[in-house]
Specification:
Helices cover about 25% and strands about 10% of the residues. The chain has 7 helices and 5 strands; from the N terminus they run H-H-H-E-H-H-E-H-E-H-E-E.
Length: about 230
């Protein structure tokens, strides 16, 4: 059986940056949406999960309990996959969202404490602002698609930042097999394709792919269109 290094096509002494880069290339090639197969996609993700964290300092994955920079009432979630999974609630999660592209049109910023209040009062289209519910265990991207939206994505495997969102309130889990550097996760950036809501309520700014640092992690996009929700 090929080793994780063989699956990613890297040397055994590869550093973290090389591992991440190889994962981005291989997960895109192997994804069924891009001509690959489910089996190959799973092999690539498993290989990255086995190697993720190599070359990091011992405490680089430790998330302190300080507040999220986006909103003083938000706590950062622990992205360490070794932590026990959160119990799944029986009720669906409620997601309130706003499209990053409309912020500049209205002179708003992610750091605005009343961002969602202003968005709610602005008469925005359903594609730009609204709420939907998501079933426990579904990713945020799946939840958006279930109500009729096609949010930005490319790999669906955590290997790019096309689906990135900024978590303003609440918590969105992230598995170890994702491409985001610590600097972005510390700022509340998560990937909607692999992130699952942890809290009952979640506020996110989606379509943040052009934020500094996020733009460098983009891949050729998958389909992206706005479709009005059923609400």
């Amino acid at each position: 059986m090929p080793s994780p290094h063989d699956v990613l096509g890297i040397d055994r002494d590869a550093d973290e940056e090389t591992i991440r880069s190889a994962y981005r290339d291989r997960v895109l090639e192997s994804h069924p949406d891009h001509g690959g197969s489910p089996a190959a996609f799973r092999r690539v993700r498993s290989a990255y999960e086995a190697l993720a964290g190599e070359g990091r300092s011992p405490d680089s994955d430790a998330r302190d309990e300080s507040r999220s920079p986006w909103e003083p009432t938000v706590r950062r979630d622990d992205a360490d996959a070794s932590a026990p999974p959160e119990p799944e609630p029986s009720d669906p999660h409620t997601v309130e969202y706003v499209d990053y592209e409309v912020l500049s049109d209205h002179g708003w910023a992610i750091t605005d404490g009343d961002l969602f209040e202003k968005a709610a009062d602005a008469g925005l289209d359903p594609g730009d602002y609204g709420r939907f519910q998501i079933s426990p265990g579904d990713s945020l991207l799946e939840g958006a698609e279930d109500v009729g939206f096609t949010w930005p994505f490319s790999c669906r495997g955590g290997a790019c930042a096309n689906c990135a969102v900024a978590v303003v309130e609440g918590s969105l889990s992230q598995p170890v097999s994702h491409i985001l550097p610590d600097e972005l996760t510390d700022e509340g950036i998560r990937l909607s394709c692999v992130g699952q809501p942890v809290t009952d309520d979640l506020q996110v700014v989606y379509n943040v792919k052009h934020l500094p640092g996020v733009e460098d992690l983009l891949l050729p996009p998958g389909p992206y269109k706005r479709v009005a929700s059923d609400d």
